[in-house]
Amino acid sequence: MAGDGGARVALVTGGAQGLGAAIARRLHSDGMAVVVADLNLDGARASAAGLGDLALGVEVDVTSDDSVRRLADEVARAFGRLDVLVNNAGIISRTPSADLDTAAWLRELDVNLGGAMRCSRASFELLRSGDYPAIINMASVGATLGMPLRLAYSSAKSGVLGLTRTLAAEWGAFGIRVNALAPGYIDTDMMRSGFDLGVLDEQALLARTPLHRLGSADEVAAAASFLASKDASFVTGIVLKVDGGVTIDGDFRPPGARP
Ligand SMILES: NC(=O)c1ccc[n+]([C@@H]2O[C@H](COP(=O)([O-])OP(=O)(O)OC[C@H]3O[C@@H](n4cnc5c(N)ncnc54)[C@H](O)[C@@H]3O)[C@@H](O)[C@H]2O)c1
To answer: Does the beta carbon of 40 sit less than 6 angstroms from any atom of ligand 1?
Structure first.
């Protein structure tokens, strides 16, 4: 039970691959038991198996109330507690906004934003008796920048910031901290799909990024580790950007005039 000195328990949605898998690895190496939940059950199980003991891979569809409720029940059954929820599951599509299909728009909002709401709601009772409990929501540079062709994604990630602030304000009374991570361009399949489709130019991106490189999944996981930890015990309602500075860049000198 929470408070008994046992391992804290983390639930990471979308943990089969990419950032979620890296966060699951990092929280596990921080000493937590980790539930990896994903639409891709085989991937979730493989990701959990790679962690070793105190790890469980389960299936969830974050757009389904029933599926998310079953997930919370499974966490309770397996570990009897929950201390950290990472709402990481996400999808992205790229379409001219004038052609955006309503069903695709609703789906993208539902995975990225509705999923964070459902998982937070279903985890509330467990979290409120956790040890310095924390929710970490995955936002994006898309919550700051206007990103052509990604109307649903940017709108959903902007909504994630509203969800974060509101839950932080409401659930602070229960000791639950709620923060968002806003990764920039991180070297994962999701990001590389933008290069492959030609909607992102790698050189232009690197030139616009003060640190002049892509981020790694482990760098995002390190930020998640901090927000999940007792070191962040007075941090709530914030957006922690892990973006190499891409959202603050004001350097419009010609490339040759830069150091
Ligand atoms: N990669 C980046 O550069 C980047 C930047 C900013 C934000 N993000 C955000 O970080 C998160 C992870 O990104 P990633 O690059 O690792 O993506 P990814 O596509 O590699 O992984 C996403 C995971 O979510 C799962 N998923 C999708 N729909 C689901 C659903 N309905 N229910 C449960 N699981 C579902 C997928 O199966 C997959 O395992 C996303 O929220 C994404 O928007 C990523």
So the answer is: yes
Distance, in Å, from the CA atom of 256 to the CA atom of 204, rounded to the nearest integer, reads 14
Residue 170: phi and psi, rounded to 5, are -80, -40
**pLDDT tens per residue across span 148-196:** 999 999 999 999 999 999 999 999 999 999 999 999 999 998 888 889 9
From ligand 1's centre to the CA of 90, what distance in Å?
4
- Closest protein CA for atom 23 of ligand 1: 14
Atom number in ligand 1 closest to CA 16:
39
Could you tell me the distance, in angstroms and rounded to a whole number, from the CA of residue 14 to the centre of ligand 1?
Answer: 6
pLDDT, position 113: 99
CA distance 176 to 170: 9
pLDDT digits (tens, 9 = 90+) for 197-211: 888 899 999 999 999
Q: Is 185 a catalytic residue?
A: no
- In angstroms, the CA 65 to CA 199 distance is 34
Which domains, ranges and CATH numbers included, belong to the chain?
9-243 (3.40.50.720)
